[in-house]
């Protein structure tokens, strides 16, 4: 234990680093953690000194993860997620009446987790156990009370309400947009020949680049993907690092668009009858369904409310 403590950097610094990497900025991390921006900067500098690498590229009040930073962020994010899952399971055993919430990794990590305490308060202080179910086979309604699922109306049973239509646009990181401003003038047809970041949809109903091009009115299809990523947060990390152009789903990317850390390089397209759905189990108490649904609708309409 002593040896591990000496090998690891400050856990506070790692928590600050995880938030800054996930949110794409020091000021946004400061707001989430309720500390000052200079405090965030001190933690990051101390962590960089501890690991011997620059973790962020800084320019014009914006930050993006370097390659070593991305490697560390993925490890820290996964580690904190594992810790949170164990803590949740212990709370379930201790407290009993815990509300089980399930969603996809993209929605969970990029939109829900920073707001989870607000949902808990809306549910009268109930404890929440959050689980990630990326593949359709994992999304078993007998295993959760409420959830947010991405898909079509046809995928759902009777207990489903549309929260937001599936709205998708191509985006790049701000550094790539500044280095190559011609990207902002590309037409949808031009994007076929660009460096595209693909996601391995597997049995998940995520929109593919081929589907986006069809909905954008482009007849050509992109060449086969050289690399596919199986995790939406990884796609956005690659976008932020300047690897290429990725598809961004709203509302997951709304705050990043607003802050300017990512930039749209093509039009939004909407897939009819697809989107983000609030779902619940037959066993879930009606008051929990009503409170949670009202909270999701309010936060999606006013994301800055937290």
Automatic annotation (TrEMBL):
MF annotations from Gene Ontology: DNA-binding transcription factor activity; sequence-specific DNA binding
InterPro entries: LysR-type_TF_proteobact-type, LysR_HTH_N, LysR_subst-bd, WH-like_DNA-bd_sf, WH_DNA-bd_sf
Keyword set, alphabetical order: DNA-binding, Transcription, Transcription regulation
Annotated GO biological process: DNA-templated transcription
Entry-linked SUPFAM superfamilies: Periplasmic binding protein-like II (SSF53850), Winged helix' DNA-binding domain (SSF46785)
Gene3D superfamilies: Periplasmic binding protein-like II (3.40.190.10), Winged helix-like DNA-binding domain superfamily/Winged helix DNA-binding domain (1.10.10.10)
Pfam families: HTH_1 (PF00126), LysR_substrate (PF03466)
Residue intervals of the HTH lysR-type domain: 9-66
The family this protein is said to belong to: Belongs to the LysR transcriptional regulatory family.
Name the UniProt record assigns to this protein: DNA-binding transcriptional regulator, LysR family
């Amino acid at each position: 234990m002593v040896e591990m403590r000496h090998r690891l950097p400050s856990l506070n610094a790692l928590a600050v680093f995880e938030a800054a990497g996930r949110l794409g900025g020091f000021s946004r991390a400061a707001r989430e953690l309720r500390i000052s921006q200079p405090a965030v900067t001190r933690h990051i500098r101390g962590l960089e000194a501890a690991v011997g690498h620059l973790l962020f590229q800084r320019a014009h009040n914006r930050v993006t993860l370097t390659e070593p930073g991305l490697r560390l962020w993925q490890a820290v994010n996964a580690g904190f997620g594992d810790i949170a899952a164990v803590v949740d399971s212990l709370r379930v055993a201790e407290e009993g009446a815990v509300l089980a919430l399930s969603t996809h990794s993209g929605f969970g990590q990029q939109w829900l987790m920073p707001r989870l305490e607000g949902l808990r308060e809306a549910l009268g202080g109930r404890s929440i156990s959050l689980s990630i179910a990326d593949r359709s086979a994992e999304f078993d309604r007998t295993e959760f009370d409420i959830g947010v699922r991405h898909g079509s109306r046809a995928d759902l049973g009777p207990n489903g309400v549309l929260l937001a239509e599936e709205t998708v646009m191509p985006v790049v990181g701000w550094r790539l947009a500044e280095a190559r401003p011609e990207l902002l003038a590309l037409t949808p047809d031009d994007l076929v020949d660009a460096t595209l970041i693909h996601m391995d949809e597997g049995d998940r109903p995520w929109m593919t680049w081929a589907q986006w091009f069809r909905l954008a009115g482009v007849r050509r299809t992109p060449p086969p993907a050289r690399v596919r990523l199986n995790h939406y947060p990884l796609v956005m990390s690659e976008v932020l690092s300047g690897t290429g152009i990725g598809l961004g789903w709203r509302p997951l990317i709304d705050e990043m668009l607003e802050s300017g850390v990512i930039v749209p390089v093509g039009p939004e397209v909407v897939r009819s009858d697809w989107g983000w759905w609030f779902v619940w189990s037959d066993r879930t108490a009606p008051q929990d369904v009503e409170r949670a649904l009202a909270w999701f609708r309010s936060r999606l309409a006013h994301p800055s409310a937290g």
